[in-house]
Design a protein that fits this description.
The complex is a heterodimer of chains A (about 80) and B (about 130). Chain A has a single domain, classed as Glutaredoxin (3-Layer(aba) Sandwich), CATH 3.40.30. Chain A contains three helices and four strands. In chain A, strands 2-1-3-4 form a four-stranded mixed beta sheet, sandwiched between helices. In chain A, helix 1 packs across helix 3. Chain B has about 130 residues and is mainly alpha-helical. Chain B has two domains: about 70 residues, Multidrug-efflux Transporter Regulator, Chain: A, Domain 2; about 50 residues. Chain B has a two-stranded antiparallel ribbon with strand order 1-2. In chain B, strand 1 and strand 2 form a beta hairpin. Chain B is elongated, with a radius of gyration of 23 Å. The mean pLDDT of chain B is about 90. The chains are: A alpha+beta (about 80), B mainly alpha (about 130). Chains A and B meet through helix 2 of A and helix 5 and helix 6 of B.
Chain lengths: ~80, ~130
């Protein structure tokens, strides 16, 4: 079963589109399913997940990053896969 | 005559004179002693009871529940299980309210961060207007 990566973004969030594009690029090579959420539409779940800023990355139900993200950091997140038990 | 007038008691407790009369009317305070002129005189037991009421209100007990607690207070040993049940119920309510408040606090922080992080406009306002 592939891993599920969710990205929580917001309108006018300057870093959200770039982060989403970087993830899309990575998804071409890595076995992930991607879901995109507008944080204002799913705010209850966002709060429960502990999201305080966007973009926020949730992998298999666990918040792994929030806020601006560099390509290097994203690469490390998607390849280390510490969420896999 | 010994004791405090209603004005002095109001000043001492921070409660209004109307509230003091109301507590007596609904039985939270037993009938307060009167001087020969018919004016209320509050003694130390009344003040202790008023302090208990104020503490219980700060713990979020309703006036009805405080009435129960005051009855139980005068027979504390005999009524311990009832006091425990009442307090446990109130504690559960307070915990639920705290969880709700915690969620609300984190939601407001998130919304505020979204506004701070937005390059143009505020997504919250726009969401409300759409």
């Amino acid at each position: 079963m592939s891993d599920l990566i969710e990205i929580y973004s917001a309108s006018h969030c300057p870093h959200c589109s770039a982060a989403t594009e970087r993830i899309r690029d990575w998804l071409a090579d890595v076995d992930f399913e991607l879901q995109r959420h507008n944080v204002l539409d799913d705010i209850d779940r966002a709060v429960v997940l502990g999201i305080r800023q966007t973009p926020a990355l949730v992998i298999n139900g666990r918040l792994v990053h929030q806020g601006p993200i560099t390509e290097k950091h994203l690469q490390r997140l998607l390849t280390q896969q510490p969420w896999r038990d | 005559m010994a004791g405090l007038s209603i004005g002095e008691t109001a000043q001492r407790t921070g409660l209004s004179a109307d509230t003091l009369r109301y507590y007596e009317k609904i039985g939270l305070l037993p009938r307060v002693a009167r001087d020969p002129g018919g004016r209320r005189r509050y003694d130390e037991r009344d003040l202790s009871r008023l302090r208990f009421i104020q503490r219980a209100q700060r713990c979020n007990f309703s006036l009805k529940e405080i009435g129960q607690l005051l009855k139980l207070r005068s027979a504390a040993d005999a009524s311990r299980p009832q006091v425990q049940r009442l307090t446990e119920r109130k504690l559960a309510e307070v915990k639920a309210q705290m969880a709700d408040l915690d969620h609300l606090q984190r939601e407001l922080e998130l919304l505020l961060n979204l506004c701070h992080g937005s390059e143009e406009g505020c997504p919250i306002i726009e969401g409300l207007e759409s």
